[in-house]
Amino acid sequence: MKRDSEQALIEWLVIGAQMGDSKALEQLVVKLYPKLMRFSERQLQDAEGAKDVVHNTLELLNRNLGTLKDPATFPTSVYQILYRKGVDFIRGNQRYRQYHQDLDIEQAEVYFEETPQFIRFEKFLTQLDSGHYHVVHLHYLEGLNIQEVAAVLNLPEGTVKSRLFKARQLLKNSMNGEKV
Fold first, then answer.
1. Is the pTM of this model over 0.70?
2. Cβ atoms of residues 71 and 111 within 8 Å
3. What is the tens place of the pLDDT at every residue in 69-118?
């Protein structure tokens, strides 16, 4: 991951939380929550389910934060947990729907930052399939490197690279007015 002031702040907050500073833990949660919600809502297509998954992820992190040896790996760890909890949620929903065929699923409400460039980029992202979306989101919006994205999504690095390449091609075509 690129080393910048935001990453340094997160590492500092993780260390503080590991030492028992409840304010550091609170600030860490406040900083992460919107990003985790955006990622989870896209993964699940269910706003209420995303809240549950994010809440469960944050609970698990709170309990196990002391076992994290390197605070620099925190973003990778949190997205690994979030992604896997999301997969578990989807599997649980699929089993539930098998028994309740008439269940109505509401569409997730996606929150956008209000800059025109970000809205245009988010519109492009909504056109991607979930495999490409997750790779692009983690790499470009969260700043994870190829190895970290591969670890979060449990994919080979080559697959991550090819999905990023394909997404860049699709974005280029989209910018030229072609349909994605």
1. no
2. no
3. 888 888 888 999 999 888 888 877 655 555 444 434 333 334 444 556 66
Q: Could you tell me which of 126, 165, 120, 160 has the C-alpha nearest to residue 38? A: 126
* Maximum C-alpha span of the chain: 53
Q: Where are the alpha helices (DSSP H) in the chain?
A: 5-18, 22-44, 47-64, 74-99, 116-126, 130-136, 146-153, 157-175
Return the structure tokens found at 59: 């609970």
CB 1 within 8 A of CB 78: no
Q: Which residues contact 98 (CB under 8 A, 6 or more apart)?
A: none
Q: Is residue 71 classed as helix, strand or coil in its secondary structure?
A: helix
Contact 139, 166 (CB under 8 A): no
Per-residue tokens: 65? 């934060």
Which residue's entry shows tokens 């833990």?
25
Residue closest to 149 by CA, chosen among 85, 84, 88, 76: 76
Token match 């944050």: residue? 58
Number of residues written out for the chain: 180
Instruction: Residue 147: name the closest of 67, 80, 65, 61 by CA.
Output: 80
Handedness of CA 136, 142, 144, 145 (dihedral sign): positive
CA-CA distance, 44 to 23, in Å (whole number)? 30
